[in-house]
Amino acid sequence: MKLLLHTCCAPCVIYPLEKLKQEGFSVRGYFYNPNIHPLSEYNNRLKAATDFGAKRDLEMVHAEYAPVEFFQAVNLKEDRPERCLICWKLRLKKTAEAAKEMGCEYFSTTLLVSPYQDQEALKKIGCDMAADSGVEFLYEDFRPGFRKAHEQAKAEGIYCQKYCGCTYSELERCQKSEKH
Fold first, then answer.
1. pLDDT in tens, 123-133
2. What are phi and psi of 103, to 5 degrees?
3. Do residues 47 and 31 touch, judged by C-beta distance below 8 A?
């Protein structure tokens, strides 16, 4: 059973990869994150994901960095949650298409490990993309492994980001820290 796993970052791939391999899936990582800004942040996350993949026998395929796709998609819809829904749809659509091209029976996302993401919305988007692509979306609540995986990432010196990735989430993070 071949599965393409959309990978947002190295810390978030740790637990889903372990769980999916235990369940008998042959997993390939897919790093498509046009939302990540600036380019230096994108490169840090890509390198961390690629390095992690090399250590864990996980082939990490990555699409070309395409921030214009993200900015065009969220133009005039920059507020949460609308922006996030658009971003997830953009990334899962591309992942489903890539899974089909690569001959995978399934696709999923590491976004499902985060307690900060809307699981039901991700599940619906994944199922919609599955219907469009003909590749099955594997929904699994990976949140139970979030904290342990992030502790492991820190212990191993894996790059851990401080915001979701988009410039809007970075701005929100900075505004929160200014208030405290």
1. 999 999 999 99
2. 75, 25
3. no
State the average pLDDT over residues 59-73: 96
pLDDT at 180: 61
The residues that bridge with 26 in the sheet, in sequence order, are 2
Q: In which band, very low, low, confident or very high, does the pLDDT at 95 lie, cut at 50, 70 and 90?
A: very high
**Overall average pLDDT of the 41-55 stretch:** 97
DSSP per-residue codes, 81-137: THHHHHHHHHHHHHHHHHHHHTT-SEEEEGGGG-TTS-HHHHHHHHHHHHHHHSSEE
How far is residue 36's CA from residue 169's CA, in Å, rounded to a whole number? 10
Beta strands in the chain (DSSP E): 2-6, 26-31, 60-62, 106-109, 136-137
Q: Please name the residues in contact with 144: beta carbons below 8 A apart, sequence gap of 6 or more.
A: 15
Measuring CA to CA, how many Å separate 113 from each of 92, 147, 150, 160, 180?
15, 9, 11, 15, 27
Question: What's the pTM value of the predicted model, to 2 decimals?
Answer: 0.95
Q: How many residues does the chain have?
A: 180
- Contact 96/90 with Cβ under 8 angstroms? no
Instruction: Report the half-sphere exposure of 119 (CA within 13 A, side-chain side).
Output: 11
pLDDT of the residue at 177? 67
Gap between the Cα atoms of 141 and 128, Å rounded: 18
Q: What is the CA radius of gyration of the chain?
A: 15
